[in-house]
Amino acid sequence: MGDEIDIKLAIKWSGNEYEIEIGPNETVADLKASIYSKTRVKPERQKLMGLKGQKGITVNDETQINQLALRPGLKIMMMGSKEEDISNIDLDPSEIPNVLNDFDIEDDLNEVAIHNREEYLAKIERRVKEYKVTVFNEPREGKKLLVLDIDYTLFDHRSTAEHASQLMRPYLHEFLTRSYENYDIVIWSATGMKWIEVKMRELGVTNNPNYKIAFFLDSLAMISVHTQKYGNINVKPLGVIWGKFPQYSSKNTIMFDDIRSNFLMNPQNGLRIKSFREAYKNRDKDKELYYLARYLTNIAQMDDLSTLDHNDWHKKL
C-alpha cells in the first residue's frame, strides 16, 4: 500500500458494527476478505447494501476502494449468514424441513385461543401507546390494508448477488402497483428499521412513482407469546396497527408472510405465501405475486376479509 492512507469503513451486521481499515487501491474483494476475518461470513455470502461506485463505475469484486462513492460517516450494511447458520440453504424449497417458525397452527383450543389471552392483548396495548410509527403517506379513505413481510416474501435474503434487485421476487413492482389501487400498503419485517429502509431502497420500493408505502414496522412492534408446543415465539399482531389507525380493522386487512406463526394473533387475516428462495434458480418461474395481485383485486370489494379462508386463495382466481 506504500504511503497510501488506509480508509476506515464501518460495517453493520447482525446488530453489531465492525470497523475495517483498507487501502484505497485494494478491491471490494479485499474488503470482503477483511469482513470475513471479523464476522466469519464468507465473501460469496456477503451482500453489501448501499455500496455505490463513483459516476460511471459499476461495482463488482474487482472495483478499487478509491473508485467507490464513500462519504464521511457512511455505514455499510451487510447481509449474509455464517455457514453453520445456513446448512439448509442449498436444499430445494420444497425439501426444506419445517422449523419452529413455520409451523401450521393446529386445531388445539389452547393454541387457537391465544389471540384472546388478556396478557397478550395487554402487550398489544403497550405497543400501541409506545411504538412510534413514521407515516410516509397518509392512509386513504375507503382503502383496505395490505401488510407485507420482506424476507422470503418479497426478497430472497440469503442467496448471493451483486445487487439486491437480483434477489427481488418476480413481479414485485407490478404486484405493488396493482395492489395499491385498492389497498394501502405497509411493510412489516422481523428485522431492524435500518435494514428495512436499506432493503426497500435497494429494491426500488421506497420512492416508486407507481405506488406509495404508508409506513414501515420493524421487530420492535412485535410481541412474544407462549405456545404449549413451541414455547416462546415472536408474532406480528395486527392489533398494533388497528390501535394506531382505527380506519383499519380485521374486516379490511390482509397480511402476507411466509411464516404462518407470525399471524397467530390474527389467524383469519393471514395468508401464508410460498417462500421465495434461491432466486437464481426460481426468478424465471416464480409467479406467486402475479397471481396474488389478481386475488387481491378479486376480494377488494368484499365487506369483511376475515370471513375468507386464505388457505384456498388459489380457488378464487
Give an overview in words:
Its EC number is 3.1.3.16. InterPro entries: FCP1_dom (IPR004274), HAD-like_sf (IPR036412), HAD-SF_hydro_IIID (IPR011943), HAD_sf (IPR023214), Ubiquitin-like_dom (IPR000626), Ubiquitin-like_domsf (IPR029071), UBLCP1 (IPR051658). With 317 residues, this protein is of the alpha/beta class. The chain folds into 2 domains: 77 residues, Ubiquitin-like (UB roll) (Roll); 224 residues, HAD superfamily/HAD-like (Rossmann fold, 3-Layer(aba) Sandwich), CATH 3.40.50. 22% of the residues lie in helices and 18% in strands. The chain is built from 8 helices and 11 strands. A 5-stranded parallel β-sheet has the order 7-6-5-10-11, with helices on one face. A 4-stranded mixed β-sheet has the order 2-1-4-3, with helices on both faces. A two-stranded antiparallel sheet has the order 8-9. Strand 5, helix 4 and strand 6 form a beta-alpha-beta unit. The radius of gyration is 21 Å and the shape is globular. The relative contact order is 0.13. About 8% of the residues have low confidence.
Rounded to an integer in angstroms, the radius of gyration calculated over CA atoms is: 21 Å
Number of strand segments: 11
The helix tally amounts to 8
What is the total number of structural domains? Answer: 2
Cα separation of the termini:
62 Å
The fourth-level CATH homologous superfamily of the largest domain is HAD superfamily/HAD-like
Q: Characterize the overall form.
A: globular
What's the CATH architecture of the largest domain?
3-Layer(aba) Sandwich
Major sheet characteristics: 5 strands, parallel
Oligomeric nature of the chains:
single chain
Poorly predicted regions are 87-112
Q: What structural class should be given to the helix and strand makeup? A: alpha/beta
Average pLDDT for all residues: 85
Fraction of residues in β-strands: 15-25%
Which sequence of SSEs, written as H and E, runs from N to C?
EEHEEHHEHEHEEEHEEHH
CATH topology of the largest domain: Rossmann fold
Q: Which CATH first-tier class of the largest domain would you pick? A: Alpha Beta
What is the helical fraction, as a range of percent?
A: 10-25%
Strand order, biggest sheet?
7-6-5-10-11
